[in-house]
Write a structure and sequence with these properties.
It contains 5 helices and no strands. By secondary structure, the protein is an all-alpha fold. The protein has one domain. The longest helix has about 35 residues.
Length: about 140
């Protein structure tokens, strides 16, 4: 595997860290945005922060995570391994959560959010649970 594998792993982990940080932060911004009056300077500031986080960090980091991760799986010859199938299913779920965050951002951007802060507090736990399950599959490789 050698040097290429090590560099792919660095790229995967760096992208993953950036993606996870954004997945943790964006729903937290939504929690605070709920309390900002529609049309207020505070609400408009949240809109800018949310949009920049999604477009400049979160989405590029997700794409890089997928690219480096698939390259690692190919390099490692793991496409027939059960643990990788489980991991890919969970990463698809994480990508779905990413998509849900993008939809929620559009609702806030159009001033049509109808969800309470509690919804986003609970949603904020989803990436943590998925991350833990993914780590178990990657490190323990139970199947």
């Amino acid at each position: 595997m050698g040097d290429l594998y090590a560099w792919l792993k660095v790229g995967h982990l760096a992208a993953l860290i950036a993606w996870m940080a954004a997945l943790f932060y964006l729903p937290r911004l939504f929690v605070y945005h709920v309390d900002a009056p529609v049309g207020s300077a505070q609400s408009e500031t949240f809109k800018v922060m949310e949009r920049r986080l999604l477009k400049a960090i979160m989405t590029p980091a997700m794409i890089a995570t997928w690219i480096f991760g698939l390259a690692l799986a190919w390099q490692g010859g793991w496409f027939s391994d059960g643990w990788l199938h489980g991991k890919l299913a969970l990463v698809l779920a994480l990508s779905g959560f990413h998509g849900a965050c993008a939809k929620w951002l559009k609702d806030f951007a159009a001033d049509r959010n109808t969800r309470p802060g509690r919804f986003y507090r609970i949603a904020n736990e989803v990436p943590t649970i998925l991350m833990i399950l993914i780590l178990i599959l990657v490190v323990v490789k139970p199947f």
